[in-house]
Specification:
This protein is an alpha/beta fold and about 350 residues long. It is about 40% helix and about 20% strand. α1 crosses α9. Bound molecules: adenosine-5'-triphosphate (ATP). Adenosine-5'-triphosphate binds next to loops.
Length: about 350
């Protein structure tokens, strides 16, 4: 019997709708050929263009659509010249994180053989690790509410037991799943600055407490500065890294750099009951409307969505399709044909997406 899953779709701004359209087409074709599930898509209008047209950036109905969905697919959002009267940018993706308690920002960093990377990898080495960035507190806790006087400025870093315990449980479960599916060796590294800040010693103590429940997994610690060095010197040694919000913000861009740029960097923001899947890049207004945007980060985010739905609903047919979709993008990238300009090719968005569909054909 077919299982149905509802997916809320935020089409985004700038190149957002251009990369979402072929992604939905791929998902329709995948699910159309799989007898075990069906995806239903519901549009959730929001974002900078929507604000410019209607005066509303994130209608309550769209939040409701997201809340009721099994998963949320979100394209690049925000436009630099469309802002609230106080000058801040329109970012429903950040509202979603807060409203739905999406504490785990998941950023896979994968460089397969044949894929271009600024590093020269030793023979036989591939990069395949996942960075988990706590996404609701840390140094972003006072975001937009820091205190600034004439003489000083103050922001607060918050680490809570409630969120940290959920975060570490999630990290170890992910490492276990990667080990079970032979993608990782079962190692979790806590990235902190526990030698300097008491808040990070607290963070680390909760990591150690969770580690004690997983004797079959390897758990270790690394300072954030050393981690930046090792991500360049020996990134193939990492499996799952888990860290605070600001450290994760910075390291995830370093991870995208290892993958040859933002065009191949997918992400997920995951909570206990909801998850949003979105590309790491922004809405690229400089190339919007030209049909040349790279759709791969969006497509890889959709692949993560299928894998996550499969895992949380114990539905192997979905997980398999997610894996197949990710591998199809990896093959197209390794072939080096039909790549968009940011990856050194000359293909348009549609051609790049079509070659992923070709790879999926039996
Ligand atoms: P944000 O702050 O919203 O994350 P940003 O200012 O970092 O955005 P992006 O919109 O991510 O900027 O764009 C940065 C550069 O990368 C731009 O030159 C843009 O054209 C390019 N870029 C981003 N995404 C893509 C993509 N999918 N395909 C091709 N080029 C892209």
């Amino acid at each position: 019997m077919k299982k149905n899953y509802d997916v809320a779709v935020f089409h985004g701004d700038g190149i957002g709708p251009e990369i979402m359209a072929p992604t939905l087409e791929i998902l329709r074709q995948l699910s159309g050929k799989n007898p075990s599930y069906e995806l239903a898509f519901s549009d959730a209008p929001a974002g900078a263009s929507h604000y410019a047209e209607t005066g509303e950036s994130f209608p309550a109905g769209s939040l409701e659509t997201a809340r009721n969905a099994d998963a949320i697919l979100l394209s690049a959002m925000g436009l630099p010249d469309v802002r609230y009267p106080d000058g801040t940018e329109i970012s429903p993706q950040i509202d979603l994180r807060k409203q739905l308690g999406l504490f785990a920002g998941v950023r896979p960093v994968k460089v397969s053989s044949g894929q271009t990377t600024p590093l020269s990898l030793p023979n036989g080495k591939e990069i395949d690790f996942v960075l988990i960035r706590e996404s609701t507190e840390g140094l972003f806790f006072t975001q937009g509410a820091g205190e600034v006087t004439e003489h000083e400025a103050r922001e607060t870093l918050l680490i809570t037991r409630e969120v940290s315990e959920k975060l570490f449980r999630f990290a170890f479960e992910l490492a276990q799943n990667r080990k079970d599916t032979r993608r990782g060796r079962g190692r979790v590294t806590c990235v902190d600055k526990a030698n300097v800040f008491r808040a990070f010693a607290f963070f680390r103590s909760m990591f150690d407490a969770e580690a004690a429940h997983h004797p079959e997994l390897q758990a270790d610690h690394a300072y954030v500065d050393a981690t930046a060095l090792w991500m360049v010197q020996k990134p193939w040694e990492f499996d799952v890294l888990v860290t605070e919000n600001m450290f994760g913000d910075i390291l995830s861009d370093l991870g995208a750099g290892l993958m040859g740029g933002l065009g191949l960097a997918p992400s997920a923001d995951i909570g206990l009951n909801h998850a949003v899947f979105q590309p790491c890049h922004g809405s690229a207004p400089d190339i919007a409307g030209q049909g040349i945007a790279n759709p791969f980060a969006m497509i890889l985010s959709a692949a993560m969505m299928l894998e996550w739905l499969g895992l949380t609903h114990d539905h192997p047919g979905l997980s398999n399709d997610g894996e197949r979709l990710r591998e199809a993008v990896e093959k197209v990238t390794a072939n080096g044909q039909n790549l968009t300009r940011d990856l050194g090719g000359s293909a348009g968005t549609q051609d790049a997406a079509s070659s992923v569909l070709d790879e999926l054909r039996p």
